[in-house]
Predict the structure.
Amino acid sequence: MNIFKMTLKRLLRDRVQLILMVIVPILPLIPVSASADVKNTPINIGIVDNDKSELSQLFKSNLDNEFKTIPIKEDEINNSLYNSRVKAVIVIPNGYMKSVRIGDMLKIKGLYIEGEDVSYLVNGYINNFNNKLLSISAVCKSDNELVDKFEKLNSSLVKLNSIKEFKINKEKSRAAFGIMIQFIMFSSILASTLLLKDKEEKIFFRNLSAPISVRRYLFETILSFFTIGILQLSILLLVSKFFLKLYIGDSYLNMFIYMSIVTLMASALGLAISSHMKTIIQALGFGIIITTLLTALGGGWGFLPKGILLNISKLTPIYWSLDGVNILLNNTRLEGVVNNIFIMILFTILFLLVGMWKKGDNLYYSALGE
């Protein structure tokens, strides 16, 4: 394991590189952790009240405790959703109060853009409200009695503040992990430029007593990059959890294991890029372009593209990396991201094959004479 030890020592001795790999990625996480205060970021919910009864007004007034409600017309629903004026629309049907009184409750509809996390929040509130109504409607003899009894039970309604806070924290964490993954990928490319430096200075085997195979050289090299990546990941996760107070899921260990697989993929990507570049400047320039494009397309900047771009996004490792992160942030066990881990391993193998592609200007084959 001489190459592994030598490469690791050289990477750890480079203070500038260590600062770029550990300190710099923390800086953009600070404003992310400080953003999106729950009290200052109300979720806009559109209300279409076709019933206009005391009960529908009560529904709206209770909803105002959890969200910012905006009255809209039925023909404004699509535009309001697609223009992001509101995150969801609730439609209260005509005759709702009467249907509650006779025990045949009409459904309050919730409409959302596909993929919006707010759907489970609104559905939770609607179900909460309806369940309370059903529990008292059978014993009420008039509309006024129904409203009065409901208001008395109002204090027992499950409040959604903690759920809203969880949603906000999850969004912040997802954005933070997007930044982390981008920096982990770029750091792997930065570390791999050490090989280009060796090639330029012709010191591949200066400290080795015997030649080695390309496969062994690649294995020990990527192992050293992966080790540095794990060190970087450990620091970023610890700082995020204990200093920046970012939510990283129910299990630190599960997130660490999953992100370790992502780090392995990033290490292979760095190897693939540097193996086909002729200079350090080329590798860094190409690496910045690639990591930026992958991060933007994969949703690493806090939002996912739509339409055709979303389909293209699913071809990137960033998309599947963050998809797994999102699953774990919902307190899912590690078994829930098995598919994502499998996809990360496939990307790792792909990048390794690209890095080992025997071509005239491939760094390893040309340097090792194979």
User: Anything to note?
Assistant: Residues 102 and 138 are 8 Å apart (CA to CA).
